[in-house]
Structure formats: C-alpha cells, structure tokens
Amino acid sequence: MSGHLTALFGGTFDPIHYGHLLPSMALAKEINLTHISLLPNYIPPHKAQPKATTAQRLAMIKLAIEDYPLFSIDVREITHAKPNRPSYTIDTLQNWRSEYGEHKSLAFIIGQDSLCNLPKWYHWQSLLDYCHLLICPRPGFTNTTDNLQLQKWLLQHSTKNITDLQQNPCGSIYFANTPLKAISATEIRQHIENRQDYQSLLPPKVWQYIQTQHLYGA
Question: What positions does the domain Cytidyltransferase-like occupy (predicted)?
Fold first, then answer.
C-alpha cells in the first residue's frame, strides 16, 4: 500500500492559466492528491509549436505556482530532450516510474480533449503500466468515444473508487468531477493579439510577466 498519490500534469503552458491551475487544485481535493508536478513539453507531438520560448514558459510557470505549495515544476522533458524529436509521454512515464520505484502511487493528468487523441499517442495502451490516468472534463467534450479499442480499454480500467488510486501504484483510469473552465491558451493569445482583456484568465504575476516581456504581441 502506498497511501500518498503524486501526479504529473503535462502541457505546453503557453501561457499557463487558471484553466490549468483551478481544475488541478479541485482534483487534488477530490482524490486527496498530495502533490502535482507540472511538466512543460519540449516539442509537443500533437500540437502547434509554442509561441513563447522554453525559458519564458518556465518563468511563467514558476510565477504562477509561487503561492501554491501543491505544485512544483518537472523539467525532464526539456532537459532530456533530443534535438527536433518530440517528447513522448510513455518515455517520460517510464523515467518517472524508475525514479519512484514500483510501489509508489503515481498518476498522470490529462483532459477529455487529450483522451480523444489517445489512440494516436505512442504506445498509448502501455501508459497504465506506469501510472493511473486522471481525466478532467473539458467544455464540449464527453467521456464517450467512437473508437471501439479505446472504449474497451476505458471500460476495462475505469474506477470510481479513490482507494484504487491510493492503494495501487498504477493501472486505473479515473474520470474526475472537476469544474469546467472554458479557458484556453489559444484564446488568451488571441485576446492579447486583439487587444482584448485577458487579465482575469491567469494569475496576476503571469499577466505582469506577459506585459513586461511583450509576449504574444502584448
């Protein structure tokens, strides 16, 4: 039995905003997560490349979590990056698991939007060999899928029992009941470009950083 559940939450964080932070905090309360490591991607395989530099994205994450001891930053995808090669989640999880050993309860947080694309991920069916999967709702997405292989996998591994996550090191999928935050980094960048107000969508220190760095056309 492990008892303490630690999670990894990957993203481009371009920029980090309340749509990342508030559901994560709610999830921590819901399933008694003791810690969440934010994992900035190096080259995300399924997304457009970041607009901010790696150093700028890291600086914004540091500012965003300064007042929240729940969070830390995990830079392994950036420091272990190979030139022009995407970061694959399965490699990261293998590396993360080897650090903690085979008995620690570990979880990986994704949104429903990423769940739809899961069959495109490299070795996606092996993810549960290394961690639990925590799926947060996203506006406009559901937990159902037309992909029969994915649907079968979800049914096979889903649990509503938080104890399964706490007491087993890996292997379960949990659909969270976290609040829907209709905020996206794309929307924030568009607001900045169009000179619209976006201050309420992200932590004040991140907003100030974007202003002083003239990021995204600010």
Answer: 8-190
Q: Which residues pair with 37 in a beta bridge?
A: 8, 72
Q: Where are the alpha helices (DSSP H) in the chain?
A: 18-31, 54-65, 76-79, 89-100, 112-117, 148-157, 162-167, 185-193, 204-213
3-state secondary structure of 106: strand
Which 8-state DSSP code applies to residue 82?
P
Q: What is the pLDDT of residues 4-60, one digit of tens each?
A: 899 999 999 999 999 999 999 999 999 999 999 999 988 766 677 789 999 999 999
Summarize the confidence of residues 168-174 as an average pLDDT: 97
Per-residue pLDDT at 107: 98
- Chain centre to alpha carbon of residue 81: 18
Sheet holding 33-40, edge to edge: 71-73, 33-40, 5-11, 105-111, 132-136, 173-175
CB contact set of 100 (below 8 Å; sequence gap of 6+): 6, 106
Residues in the chain: 218
Mean pLDDT of 72-95: 86
Q: How far is CA 59 from the centre of its chain?
A: 17
